[in-house]
Amino acid sequence: MNRRASILTLAAGAAASAAPPAPVNPIQLHVDLEVGDEKLLLANFSKIFKPAISRQDGFVEVRLLKFRKAMLGNGPGSWNYRLLISFKTEEQRMKWVASDDHQKAWPTIEKCLKGAKVAAWLYDIS
């Protein structure tokens, strides 16, 4: 192989590896929770729920938000926490929901709620 061919091969390989990834339209699920036992919720979220969801295929991010105050408009009523869950696709999120990990992790969150009061909204991220 001559020098010119080697350089062209290296350049083509570098260009291929620098190509941007295929576009992905991630999703985000917002789950509002009416929490009774905040201390238990925080412990279960960090020790059980977050590690379980973090190892799922397509997982992007999970956050637990505590409501502080309404800055404009009405507040969330009795919902005092919001769980934000992001996956690369809705199909991957649904696999998480059907997984054994979810079946074990979600009840640890659910048992912290007042009367299992939950509301959820699914968003596409642009």
Task: Describe the fold and architecture.
The protein has 126 residues and is α+β, with helices and mostly antiparallel strands. The chain has a single domain, classed as Alpha-Beta Plaits. It is 41% helix and 29% strand. It contains four helices and four strands. It has helices at residues 3-17, 38-54, 90-98, 100-110; strands at 27-35, 59-66, 81-87, 113-124. α2 (38-54) runs antiparallel to α4. The longest helix is centred in the middle third of the chain and has 17 residues, at 38-54.
Query: What's the number of helices?
Result: 4
Question: What is the fold-level CATH name, i.e. the topology?
Answer: Alpha-Beta Plaits
Broad shape: globular
Query: On the 0-100 scale, what is the average pLDDT?
Result: 87
Count of domains = 1
CATH class: Alpha Beta
Strand coverage percent: 25-35%
Helix content class:
40-55%
Strand order of the largest sheet: 2-3-1-4
Oligomer: single chain
The CATH architecture designation is 2-Layer Sandwich
Structural class: alpha+beta
